[in-house]
């Protein structure tokens, strides 16, 4: 599989196979220039001919003398000691027959060998043999075996190494130098004896070459379970595995592993490298910071079964059950590391005791984390908004046998406040298409940022809260997004109506087989999405409101260079749909620019991103998920932090702005460092109007308005009312004046909204605390 490098050239990044194959052409095996053998063919050819079929170039596919000799040898030994198959017969078996032992199979093998000799030249048959013979540890052919056993190309191996390869043809596992070095050395001695018997090498030269192998066997330090599969090229494991699964569905596993295919992916090597450099160290640091143990109650077995274990141990002669340290020491160590160590460190900074400081520092560095801390996982995925090409993807803290979940596509998590731009874009698009001066949603629409309470069907109350439980009174929508105000998000949905936004939300999110929940908590990102789905929705905003169809593979070629699968044709421009207007996409983009420059997303600027960026943070309840999703005209990227167990917190204050935004900024700054700055290609088609409005009310300014700014509007939603709010009590923290003074209960069923008053004498229902939190600016 190939990825694109900085020069615009395709470079290998992965290999797919179950058995390693490296085809070798016979002309690559140059003739020998030494005088060790009168035959000047390459040493690999001479070794295989001597051991397998010394008369290969003289028979017609079947060696009758060899059959007679093998019959006598096996009869005298009383067992099968020597085979009689020629190289041509072995090729017939390897390519067309099974390995069953029967007279019928041997007859077919002989007949096919005769036909092969009539059809193909000897050199072609020998080339096929050298490329098809299994040589152990998952290698097929001399090219793969040479690279696995000796870390060399087959053209460069020595006589002794060639003899090792020739010794593996019968029983590769038994005679493997890695599994059984002694057996291997004995079999190699047989190969050299064959070279001497066949007149290809003198005794002295054979002894010299055999002795030279001593260094190879002495320095051999590899696991017997080692295989060529672990040697395969795999620079970016998460990408490799994701594309492998997709290709198996489209072209089949047999063709993928054995077809000699060339796969051209959309991955850009620089982007992928920078993604791993940005995310993986951050996840490791956060694992230490969050300090969540995989198993805390280490005394559970002792408490429950400790007394009974001693009886069982006496009956069955089991060893004593005991810890290396006492319970008191374990309790103190856990309390110290989790609760007291940071406080001691802070106090020591005040007292300045060097000895105590050194002890604390030593404890920090000596504490092991892999054995007892749950790893914080994460996701990063980057997509080109105009083409849908996935240029980078990291699926977690490290691809291992116990950690192969590809989280950009498999981790369903609540997006929290990262969903607000999608909601606001849909609301502004609806207002542009259905203008109503009383209900228009624009960046300058004034909303009340104040507490809310909703009666749920089970009689409890839902009370969505802002992150800090602080409220700002009335606030413009642009500022509300910048500060990630939850109450405003709910009021936007309430004002427009969820049923009016469903079509746009479904189009942006593209969730086949799933639907968006029909309740107000949708406004706070209460339902689960994968990072890929959320990134794709943002890509639609970056594309001027048009859907994006992401792909990871461009096309696949066979070994003859013919394109057998072209994925670009499956996602052409005709498949893209205009979900929301370009004007709505422009407005939400300009609002997200403020989030980056002045709001919760300022962390993206930490690494010197030298181009305009637009995005939004997201943090879910109890700091379980931390997001930043955003884009430039060149690239759309999402970053997510969290534990695989969705109920575990990352820790107090671990917001999207603190964790995800800096990683996003580092990746974007370095991935796009060598790419030219561009503008959104759809920008020239946007039809918006710019108006000067009052910063306090969002209306057209009057003579009393002194704090003014310019705002963009979809023309039909531009304000027409003159501001007359100055000197009034407009900024009292309450709902709008046209709302009833008594508590209002909103219960929403499918496509209908019901508003009713709570009876004043009724007992207040049990209040349910907000399930979701925002992530407006806090002091880190």
UniProtKB/TrEMBL annotation:
GO cellular component, one term: membrane
Penicillin-binding protein transpeptidase domain sequence ranges: 378-668
Listed Polar residues bias regions: 734-744
Keywords: Carboxypeptidase, Cell shape, Cell wall biogenesis/degradation, Glycosyltransferase, Hydrolase, Membrane, Multifunctional enzyme, Peptidoglycan synthesis, Protease, Transferase, Transmembrane, Transmembrane helix
Positions of the UniProt region annotated as Disordered: 734-780
EC number annotated for this UniProt entry: 2.4.99.28
Enzyme superclass (EC): transferase
One term of GO molecular function: peptidoglycan glycosyltransferase activity
One family name in Pfam for this protein: Transgly
Glycosyl transferase family domain segment(s): 41-195
Assigned protein family: In the N-terminal section; belongs to the glycosyltransferase 51 family. In the C-terminal section; belongs to the transpeptidase family.
Catalysed conversion reaction: [GlcNAc-(1->4)-Mur2Ac(oyl-L-Ala-gamma-D-Glu-L-Lys-D-Ala-D-Ala)](n)-di-trans,octa-cis-undecaprenyl diphosphate + beta-D-GlcNAc-(1->4)-Mur2Ac(oyl-L-Ala-gamma-D-Glu-L-Lys-D-Ala-D-Ala)-di-trans,octa-cis-undecaprenyl diphosphate = [GlcNAc-(1->4)-Mur2Ac(oyl-L-Ala-gamma-D-Glu-L-Lys-D-Ala-D-Ala)](n+1)-di-trans,octa-cis-undecaprenyl diphosphate + di-trans,octa-cis-undecaprenyl diphosphate + H(+)
Protein name: peptidoglycan glycosyltransferase
Comp. bias intervals (Basic and acidic residues): 746-757
Compartments, record wording: Membrane
Species: Leptospira wolbachii serovar Codice str. CDC
Pathway info: Cell wall biogenesis; peptidoglycan biosynthesis; Glycan biosynthesis
Gene Ontology terms describing biological process: cell wall organization; peptidoglycan biosynthetic process; proteolysis; regulation of cell shape
């Amino acid at each position: 599989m190939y990825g694109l490098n900085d020069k615009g050239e395709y470079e290998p990044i992965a290999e797919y196979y179950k058995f390693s194959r490296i085809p070798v052409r016979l002309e690559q095996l140059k003739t020998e220039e030494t005088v060790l053998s009168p035959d000047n063919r390459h040493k690999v050819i001479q070794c295989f001919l001597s051991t397998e079929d010394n008369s290969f170039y003289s028979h017609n596919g079947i060696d009758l003398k060899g059959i007679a000799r093998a019959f006598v040898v096996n009869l005298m030994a009383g067992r099968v000691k020597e085979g009689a198959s020629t190289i041509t017969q072995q090729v017939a078996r390897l390519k067309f027959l099974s390995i069953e032992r029967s007279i019928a199979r041997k007859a077919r093998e002989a007949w096919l060998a005769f036909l092969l000799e009539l059809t193909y030249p000897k050199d072609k048959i020998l080339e096929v043999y050298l490329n098809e013979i299994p040589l152990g540890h998952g290698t097929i052919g001399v090219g793969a075996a040479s690279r696995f056993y000796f870390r060399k190309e087959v053209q460069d191996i020595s006589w002794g190494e060639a003899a090792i390869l020739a010794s593996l043809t019968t029983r590769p596992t038994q005679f493997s130098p890695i599994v059984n070095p002694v057996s291997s050395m004995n079999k190699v001695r047989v190969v050299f004896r064959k070279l001497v018997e066949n007149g290809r090498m003198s005794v002295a030269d054979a002894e010299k070459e055999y002795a030279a192998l001593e260094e190879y066997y002495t320095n051999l330090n590899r696991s017997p379970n080692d295989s060529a599969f672990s040697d395969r090229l795999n620079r970016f494991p998460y990408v490799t595995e994701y594309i492998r699964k997709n290709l198996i569905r489209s072209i089949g596993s047999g063709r993928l592993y054995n077809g000699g295919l060339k796969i051209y992916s959309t991955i850009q090597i620089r982007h992928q490298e920078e993604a791993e450099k940005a995310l993986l160290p951050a996840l490791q640091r956060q694992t230490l910071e969050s300090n969540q143990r995989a198993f805390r109650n280490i005394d559970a077995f002792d408490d429950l079964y400790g007394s009974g274990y001693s009886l069982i141990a006496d009956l069955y002669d089991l060893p004593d059950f005991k810890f290396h340290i006492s319970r008191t020491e374990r309790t103190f160590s856990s309390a110290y590391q989790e609760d007291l160590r940071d406080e001691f460190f802070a106090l020591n900074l005040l007292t300045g005791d060097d000895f105590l400081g050194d002890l604390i520092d030593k404890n920090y560095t000596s504490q092991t984390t892999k054995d007892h801390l749950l790893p914080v996982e994460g996701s990063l995925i980057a997509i080109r908004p105009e083409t849908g090409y996935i240029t980078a993807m990291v699926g977690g803290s490290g691809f291992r046998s116990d950690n192969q979940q590809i989280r950009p596509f498999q981790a369903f998590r609540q997006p929290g406040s990262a969903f607000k731009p999608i909601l606001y874009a849909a609301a502004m698009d609806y207002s542009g298409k259905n203008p109503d001066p009383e209900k228009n949603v624009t960046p300058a629409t004034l909303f009340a940022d104040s507490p809310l309470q909703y009666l749920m069907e089970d009689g409890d109350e839902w009370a969505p809260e802002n992150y800090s439980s602080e409220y700002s009174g009335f606030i413009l929508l642009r500022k509300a997004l910048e500060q990630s105000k939850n109450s405003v998000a709910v009021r936007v949905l309430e004002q427009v109506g969820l049923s009016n936004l469903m079509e746009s939300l479904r189009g942006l999110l593209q969730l086949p087989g799933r639907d968006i929940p029909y309740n107000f908590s949708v406004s706070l990102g209460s339902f689960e999405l994968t990072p890929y789905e959320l990134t794709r929705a943002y890509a639609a905003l970056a594309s001027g409101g048009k859907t994006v169809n992401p792909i990871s593979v461009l096309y696949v070629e066979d070994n003859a260079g013919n394109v057998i699968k072209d994925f670009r044709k499956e996602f052409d421009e005709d498949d893209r749909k205009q979900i929301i207007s370009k004007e709505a996409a422009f407005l939400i983009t300009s609002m997200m620019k403020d989030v980056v420059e002045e709001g919760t997303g300022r962390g993206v600027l930490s690494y010197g991103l030298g181009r305009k960026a637009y995005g939004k943070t997201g943090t879910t309840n109890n700091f379980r998920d931390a997001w930043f999703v955003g884009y430039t005209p060149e690239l759309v990227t999402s970053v997510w932090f969290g534990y695989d167990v969705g109920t575990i917190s990352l820790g107090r204050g671990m917001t999207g702005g603190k964790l995800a935004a800096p990683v996003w900024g580092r990746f974007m700054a370095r991935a796009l460092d060598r790419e030219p700055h561009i503008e959104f290609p759809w920008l020239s088609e946007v039809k918006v109007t710019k108006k000067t409005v009052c910063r306090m009310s969002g209306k057209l300014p009057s003579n009393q308005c002194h704090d003014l700014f310019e705002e963009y509007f979809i023309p039909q939603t531009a304000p027409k009312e003159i501001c007359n709010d100055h000197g009034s009590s407009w900024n009292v923290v309450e709902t709008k004046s046209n709302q009833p003074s008594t508590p209002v209960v909103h219960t929403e069923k499918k496509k209908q909204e019901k508003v009713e008053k709570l009876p004043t004498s009724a007992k207040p229902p049990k209040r349910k605390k907000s399930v979701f939190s925002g992530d407006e600016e806090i002091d880190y």
